[in-house]
Design goal:
single chain, mainly alpha, 75% helix, disordered N terminus
Length: 91
Amino acid sequence: MNGNQSHFMNGKTGADADPMAIAERELGAFIRAVTELFGPEQARLAADDWINQLELMDDLPGPTKRYWGSVTVAALAQLARRLNSDVDRPT
């Protein structure tokens, strides 16, 4: 097995060693999904939530994408609360 295959089998690529590259991919995927499902305004707010959640962490997540999911899940919780409060508002 060559080096590229072993990294693939471990779920890591060369970029996985760079936390900023992982963060950019995770945030980009999150923004695209929220834009598609809820529109650009909610995506902008959700991106702010994602960044705020990252800033609240004591340490940066680990060296693989799996650890960055905790930031995304926390931002999704914020999005859900915001969307639920919008539904509950009288019109």
